[in-house]
Write a structure and sequence with these properties.
Blueprint: E1 2-10, H1 13-21, E2 32-38, E3 46-53, H2 56-73, E4 78-87
Antiparallel strand pairs: 1-3, 1-4, 2-3
């Protein structure tokens, strides 16, 4: 599994979420298998999005599509986007005893 992690400031969560839900990069068609939207507890105007992919090729293509999209919306809905592609080095579920 490969994760494309995106983070940036937002002007307003509801407006940003509406744009996200419109799915301008076609997440399913881009190979996204799951996503998470996270926010720091102390900053409602900042988001972190994790998009999961089966392979790095799809993640690279999605990142290119996002960078193209950002040139059109940066400064309106979102600010100072950062992105990185991550691979999981280790993952373990901890069960409660």
């Amino acid at each position: 599994m490969v994760i494309l992690q995106i983070e940036h400031k937002i002007q307003n969560f509801d407006s940003w979420k509406k744009a996200f839900d419109n799915d301008p990069i076609d997440r399913r068609g881009s190979g996204v298998t799951a996503y998470r939207i996270l926010q720091p507890r102390e900053d409602p105007n900042y988001i972190i999005v994790e998009l999961e992919f089966d392979n790095s090729t799809d993640a690279d293509k999605a990142l290119a599509a996002l960078r193209n999209l950002w040139t059109k919306v940066e400064g309106n809905l979102m600010f100072e986007p950062q992105a990185r592609i991550l691979k999981i080095a280790e993952e373990k579920k901890i069960s409660k005893v």
